[in-house]
Amino acid sequence: MYMTTLSLADARAGFSRLIESANSTHERFEVTRNGRRMAILLSADDYDGLLETIDVLSDQPGVQALHVALEELQVGDVHSVDDVREAMAHRRTASE
Questions:
Q1: Tell me, what DSSP letter sits at residue 3?
Q2: Taking the CB of residue 11, how many other CB atoms lie within 10 A of it?
Q3: Cα separations (Å) of 6 from 28, 34, 38, 94?
Q4: Fewest C-beta in 10 Å: which of 28, 57, 72, 80?
Q5: What is this structure's pTM?
Q6: Residue 43 backbone class (left: φ over 0; alpha: ψ -120 to 50; beta: rest)
Q7: Distances in Å between the alpha carbon of 2 and those of 29, 53, 95?
Q8: Which pLDDT belongs to residue 39?
Q9: For the chain, how many structural domains are there in total?
């Protein structure tokens, strides 16, 4: 993803515009002071998405289940929506 680098002075001068741009275009801005990276400005939605991604990837059983599902998909071990509906209807009638 493309990220614009700005000095702290430039970021301060255009802060409102940067926030609007981050929110509307999802652009990320790297803010530097004396040539060193100091902060990243990104939209709240992008930040929330990063936190959610970290949360999902921290769940090892969930990640393993995703790997299994991808392997099943790759070898064609899949079921259609109609197959799933039929199996659910069969279970429903069997439990009654």
A1: E
A2: 21
A3: 11, 11, 10, 65
A4: 80
A5: 0.65
A6: beta
A7: 9, 19, 55
A8: 97
A9: 2
Does the residue 54 lie in any domain?
no
Residues in CB range of 33: below 8 A, 6 or more apart: 7, 8
| pLDDT, tens only, 77-91 | 999 999 999 999 988
Give the 3-state secondary structure of residue 65.
helix
Residue 31 lies in a domain: yes
| Residues spanned by the domain of 65 | 59-95
Place of tokens 């392997």: 71
| pLDDT for res 93 | 85
Q: At what angle do helices 44-57 and 60-74 cross, to 10 degrees?
A: 90
Residues 6 and 38 grouped into a single domain: yes
Q: DSSP characters for 8-62? A: HHHHHHTHHHHHHHHHHH--EEEEEETTEEEEEE--HHHHHHHHHHHHHHT-HHH
